[in-house]
Specification:
Structural class: alpha+beta
Helix content: 10-25%
Distance between the termini: 38 Å
Strand order of the largest sheet: 3-2-6-9-10-5-4
Number of strands: 14
Bound molecules: flavin mononucleotide
Strand content: 25-35%
Order of helices and strands: HEEEEEHEHHEEEEEEEE
CATH architecture: Roll
CATH class: Mainly Beta
Number of helices: 4
Length: about 210
């Protein structure tokens, strides 16, 4: 069956897309309002898009009443944010930060989420995150619909020492040990990034696989 994206209600497009384009990494975004209220919310329209410059992307919708979400408003106001990757043990807390709390309420305070300072931005990092990105707004992209695409420049990347092995100048990242979760499918579906397999890349010409 083909679904014509151009002639479909946005809610139906959303449902089909998020149930097929999976798994998606989850950015647990911390941002700060002009008044200093710290906000936390998860975003799975998230990825990194290159390394020179190192750019990340967030797709931020609107609240049901059509207002911008706090994360978009804060990033536009302060020009900065942090992205914290989510370990399995933090899944419940991460999901709780998706509740639409009033703008003046800090999810960080209300849920007692421990933070630690970032180095290049005034917005803190989530202390328990195995890895975290310090970001500044690179470019907002208005798509004309109800989403704002935020392109951010990654200024610093934190990885817990316990997940790094080998020489300091070229460390290996023990990604599996981070026990990260991503967004899967269905209402409330998540995935552990443990079920991996290896398929090595080869050069051209391709090896003979007849034998
Ligand atoms: C795992 C997960 C992923 C989410 N991803 C997105 C997303 O990519 N874009 C979006 O607009 N909302 C997403 N949401 C919903 C927001 O987290 C939710 O609307 C939240 O209240 C926004 O908070 P804020 O207004 O403090 O930014 C997601 C929710 C969950 C639980």
């Amino acid at each position: 069956m083909k679904f014509d994206m151009q002639n479909m209600a946005p809610a139906d497009r959303y449902r089909l897309l998020v149930n097929t384009v999976t798994p998606r990494p989850i950015a647990w975004v911390v941002s700060r309002s002009e008044n200093g209220v710290l906000n936390a919310a998860p975003y799975s329209f998230f990825n990194v898009l290159g390394s020179e410059p190192p750019i990340c992307v967030l797709g931020i919708g609107q609240r049901a009443e059509g207002d911008p979400k706090d994360t978009a408003r804060n990033i536009m106001a302060t020009g900065e944010f942090t992205i914290n990757l989510v370990r399995e043990a933090d899944t419940r807390t991460m999901v709780d930060t998706a509740a639409e709390a009033p703008r003046e309420v800090s999810e960080i305070e209300a849920l007692g989420i421990a933070t630690r300072p970032a180095s290049t931005v005034a917005t803190p990092l989530i202390a328990s995150a195995p890895a975290a990105l310090e970001c500044k707004l690179w470019k907002p992209v208005e798509t004309g619909g109800n989403f704002t695409i935020i392109l951010g420049e990654i200024l610093a990347l934190h990885i817990g020492d316990e997940f790094l092995t080998g020489p300091a100048e070229r460390p290996r990242v023990d990604t599996q040990a981070m026990a990260l979760v991503g967004r899967a499918f269905g209402a409330g579906g998540y995935i552990r990034n443990k079920d991996t397999f290896v398929e090595e890349r080869v050069g051209w010409p391709l090896p003979d696989r007849e034998a």
